[in-house]
Each structure stands twice: as C-alpha cells, then as structure tokens.
Prior knowledge:
It is a single chain. An 8-stranded mixed sheet has the order 3-2-1-4-5-6-7-8, sandwiched between helices. It is α/β, with parallel strands linked by helices and 363 residues long. The chain starts with a strand and ends with a helix. Helix 6 (146-171) runs antiparallel to helix 11. The protein has helices spanning 10-19, 45-50, 66-71, 89-98, 120-130, 146-171, 176-186, 194-202, 217-228, 234-245, 264-285, 290-293, 302-306, 309-330, 335-348, 354-360; strands at residues 2-6, 25-28, 40-41, 56-60, 78-81, 103-110, 113-117, 136-141. Helix 5 (120-130) links the parallel strand 7 (113-117) and strand 8. The chain folds into 2 domains: 2-144, NAD(P)-binding Rossmann-like Domain (Rossmann fold, 3-Layer(aba) Sandwich), CATH 3.40.50; 151-348, Orthogonal Bundle (N-(1-d-carboxylethyl)-l-norvaline Dehydrogenase, domain 2), CATH 1.10.1040.10.
Amino acid sequence: MSIGIIGTTTQTLKIANKVQKVNKIHAYDVSHAVNMFNAQNYMCIADLMVNMDRPRTVFTTSPKSLLQILEWSDPEDTVVNCNLEHFKHSMYYENACSKKSVHYLSASLTNDALLVGGKKRIFSTHEPLFYAFAKNVQHAGDMPGSGHFAKMVLDSLECAMFQSVGDAFAYANGNIPVMLSLMDKAAHMDISGPVIERSKSQLYVTRNYIDVAQTKNTTAWFMEYAFKTRTPTPVVHAAINARTSSQYAKFSETKQKYNKFYDPSVILQTIRFCYAMAYYECRQLSNGKITAWVQNSNAACPMFEIHDPMVIMDKTVEYVRSFVMHCVHCGVPVPTVQAALSQYDFMKQERTSMNFIASLRNV
C-alpha cells in the first residue's frame, strides 16, 4: 500500500509526520507553498497518482481534488476524505467512487482521535494505518459521511465547553490572576483536558481581541440537524447563539456590569454542571456514540469517561443556582449557564407549562 497526501493542513501534516516513520509519503500541496520534508513532493495530482504503487490510499483536504483523484484512480484504491464539509456531501462522493470500484471513507482527525465513516470492511482494512497517527481510532458509522458527522458533534460539544469557561470568565469580571488560579485548580479535576489547557494559555491575550467571536460551519450544521431530528440541545444552542449575537451591533448606550460576588467552588462546580449538560445533549443526538468519539479528542475530559452526566448535575445544581443568582443580580450575561440550569429544571419538573401550550392547539 502506498500513501498519498493532498493539501497541507494541521490534519495532513500530523498524518504525514507519523506515517512517514513507517511508510513513504507522496505529497501534493495545492498552493505549492509547502514541500513536506522526507516525502516525495509532486507538482500536480496526476503526477502523484501515476507514481504511487497500487493499491493507493490517498488522504485529501482539498474539496476540489477528490474528483481529480478519481480520474487517475484504479479499482481497490481508497480515498480518505478529510475535508471540513457537510456530512451529506459524502453521499455524492461515495457514489462517484463506487462507479470506479474505488473505496471511500470520510475522516476527521481531532487532536489524537480519528473518526472514520464508511463501510466497516474498508475501515478494518486500513485500521492499522490509522493507528500510526492516532491514539483513538473509531468507526463512526457505515454511512459515508459518518466521520464528518462525528466531527460536527465534537466541535459543538467543544463550543459549549469553551462558552462555559467563558461564562466563568464573565463571572470573574475577566480578572486574569483569578482565572489563572481557577484553571490551575480545574487542571486537577475531572474537567481537565484540552479545553482547560487552551483556555489557560489564551488568558493573557484576550484583551488583544475585539468582542466578536466567529461561528464554525460545523456548529451551524449541528443546530440544523438538531432541529431536523427534534433533539433538544439548548445548552449547545445557547453557546452557538452567543457567538452569533456577538457579530451584531449592540445598543447605542452600553456600560460594563461587574459581579460583586466571588466563590471559586461555585465557579468550578458550575463549569462541571455545564460540561455534563452539554455532554448529555450531544450523547442524545449521537445515540451514545460520542462516548467513544470524545476520547483523546479536542473535547476530551475525564468526566465523560467515568461519570454519569445526570449524577454530576444532581450534585452540582445548587452551586449553579448561586452562580446564576449572582450574575442576574449584577446584570452579567452568562447564556450557557442559564440555559443549562433552565433545561435541568425543565427535565426535573413533574409538570411544566407545556400542558398550557398543548391546550392552545384546541382553542
């Protein structure tokens, strides 16, 4: 088997770095700006495909390259689509591949987790190769776009986790020493992981950025899919909507509100609560598969491996009530925390306002 890589991104560079230790790499950069070290670099896709030994396995992150790869592919070659695109597109790509008896897999590499979608037989054949550059390799499903679907869910979970820390940042009035102390404590709790590490590393540069956050396409697709499947995900939606709201103009007369209260235990337990609720929502949407996907990913967290999210929420909810009370009293916005608490109370309430809403249909 020969290995080809088309397009230079964080994913493909990580793949090349690990795979070239056990196999020769054939590489093509669309922009011709990067030549991979210790690899055979080519000036076009045709040249790359012609000079690779059969059968060929080609990883691509260039949306326009997939059909060009097929032009030069032979039966039993495999295309691994690592493009960051909607999971529905893979249906078209797999149909195009099947016409030439070429195997198709969709894949997403997030940190050290590789999530692969496609036929189980093809995945199993390539699994040893995948373990050359990933610690956690998961078959996300037989549907061709399952790898991209898993990436969509993980990105949305990560978004909610970051916003939970962002709400804690707002509660602490953006005080850097206070947040550093909190992140140091969080690093020794069951909420430790890449999100906490990334949050801590960025604290000193936050003031260099304007008060506007961008929204990933994957999180927008998550909202669309959740509505389509009628899956309630208010915490993830609140996190995504907060980012979207930041892109709109604010009222003409603004002023900064500050929280007058401070309790480290309240903050840390509130983050745990929000993590648990966001994970619970994503677990519902993925039919439980996220438990395997999240390990070694950008959203990895010990809590997700060892605890039931409902147990965590039951134990921490009173801290969250104090957190929300403090912020509401002072006028500090914490959208994710409030959404998480409202959803928890909704699920725990024996009778809600929905009986009233239901009655309106009969009026």
